[in-house]
Design a protein that fits this description.
Two copies of one chain form a homodimer. By secondary structure, chain A is an alpha/beta fold. Helices cover 36% and strands 22% of the residues of chain A. In chain A, strand 6 and strand 7 form a beta hairpin. In chain A, helix 1 packs across helix 9 and helix 3 runs parallel beside helix 5. The radius of gyration of chain A is 18 Å and the shape is globular.
């Protein structure tokens, strides 16, 4: 990898079989069927969930090849998730079936910020296998979030994943979506998350993530701090105010491309998806960032984390990029 | 307590403030809204659950005074459960709010035997508190199942509960509903469950429970074995074939009183409820057992673990007891 990712160049990716390998949480979002701010809605819908798995579904629709490495339980919920991936035409060879319940997040649809209830089970039992190693060696981009590093043994798995990418070449994207509620009890997760920034290439903290990790500060200060921690490219998203992106040499501001905001769920995953798809398709870094924001804007018009995305080129044209 | 519980006598209970104290799982049953044998139903309903908590709701309706000691999370599901108890007029002072997600069981309505998916969280964080100790001292009957003893720290809590009952007098009912899926990994739960029989008074294994604990055998052999383990009264339920009950001196056979079986969920809890209510109301042991089976038969006519039970005397009359 280059020392600086130039905005006016494409990021060189090795010619490998798989475009994006996501490693981590594949889980059920159990969501109330109605908006509810007083715990009165009794009915729920089970939805495909887990941020990296959403990215895999998205990039497939955008026109590149994903692979998913995750762990589910030997139960009806795990079978549902695997089935959803297969229906989308995504290989499930790297889905491990482990001795724990399929992980779940119970979410209340809310106009205020909903407070999720986390049920960690199978997801963090993800093991480092020879199959996973082979997939890493053959993937252009490897992506993970804070979920697998929040607990052992999946944390050890991610450490091995990073080592293997570093040895065999490849780009690492990391979503520093730190939240104390997913972290194992009795550990300061913040220090561990910070230690990861120097081992990956691209990070995309939201302003909330940044505040949880670094305390309250100005966006520019966040950029500096994440760069100091070792990230090569920092994409700091600011909601309706767009994003600031720094490669350590210069900082670009991107305006939000959203024209209509119906539901923000999955907007960050949509960004990653468009951005990765564009990188794989060889767009300049600056263009790839714009395409990521365009895919995010497209997703914002629809309800749910997973929407029926068209090919990347369709969105590129639609947003005049 | 007497050495033998005579069928033709009532069990003498001290004059205490609370009739039945249930200690253990208070949780959400997340159940598919449709019958489903192929994981295709996507909608679920959240229901009040946890066997001891169901017993508490039931006995309140039957006309005696319950108290519930449980642990829930500081989340919407925990608030829902506490609210349900309060609506039923049951004191919730002994519900502990702990730093873990409210426990949940995901269940598929099925004509075959449904395979539940367990999410243990808050329930096994139940601590032994001075409030709990006071409640134990002031309760005629204390009831628990295999859930709290399946994991630490709630196992330690139950051991203290048993010690306190033994010191201050009181009857202990234990539901040996052993299942390897709820047990903590890497431990042979069977030996531990067996060790509990000698520390309690009344146990009600189903034939399935007995087989899981002792292997396949004739019902009479199960009775002997549970008595040898130290139980004073063994109520072995045999589904449609009724039950065998032994006090170590004699064994009585009870026919099922069911006239119509719509849903078996919660039938065992309904038995415990009717049985405890009758013991508290001073019926002879033999009558109390019959009343337990009558309440169970009444419940079997309706769907769900919790049904709108009438007063015990109404059921007594209805079943000609």
């Amino acid at each position: 990898m280059a020392n600086v990712f130039e905005f006016e160049a494409s990021i060189p990716l090795s010619d490998k079989k798989h475009d994006v390998l996501t490693v981590g949480e594949l889980l059920i979002d159990m969501m109330t069927t109605e908006y509810d701010d007083s715990d009165t809605c009794d009915t729920y819908q089970k939805l495909f969930g887990g941020s990296p798995s959403n990215i895999a579904l998205n990039v497939k629709k955008l026109g590149i090849t994903p692979l998913v490495a995750s762990a589910v339980g030997d139960d009806g919920l795990g079978r549902f998730l695997v089935d959803q991936l297969q229906q989308a035409g995504i290989a499930t060879d790297l889905i491990q079936c482990v001795d724990d319940s399929t992980s779940m997040v119970v979410v209340t649809k809310s106009v205020a910020t909903p407070i999720p209830i986390f049920y960690r089970g199978a997801d963090y039992q993800l093991a480092y296998t020879s199959g996973l190693e082979e997939a890493i060696i053959n993937s252009k981009i490897v992506h993970f979030s804070c979920w697998p590093i929040s607990r052992v043994p999946s944390r050890d798995t991610i450490e091995s994943v990073i080592d293997t990418v570093r040895k065999h070449g490849g780009l690492i994207g990391f979503d520093p979506n730190y939240h104390p509620m997913i972290w194992q009890k009795g550990e300061n997760g913040i220090d561990y998350v910070k230690s990861i920034f120097g081992k990956v290439d691209i990070v995309k903290p939201s302003e909330d993530d940044a505040e949880r990790l670094l305390g309250k500060a100005e966006p520019e200060r966040y950029l500096d701090y994440f760069l100091e921690l070792g990230a090569k490219l920092v994409i700091l998203t600011l909601g309706k105010d767009g994003a600031l992106v720094s490669n350590g040499k210069e900082t670009l501001a991107f305006n939000s491309l959203a024209t209509q905001v119906v539901d923000t769920t999955g907007a960050g995953d949509a960004f990653w998806s468009g951005f990765y798809a564009a990188l794989v398709k060889g767009y300049l870094l600056k263009e790839a960032l714009s395409l990521g924001f365009a895919v995010s804007a497209y997703k914002l018009k629809y309800t749910g984390a997973i929407v029926d995305l068209p090919h990347l080129e369709f969105i590129k044209e639609k947003y005049g990029l």
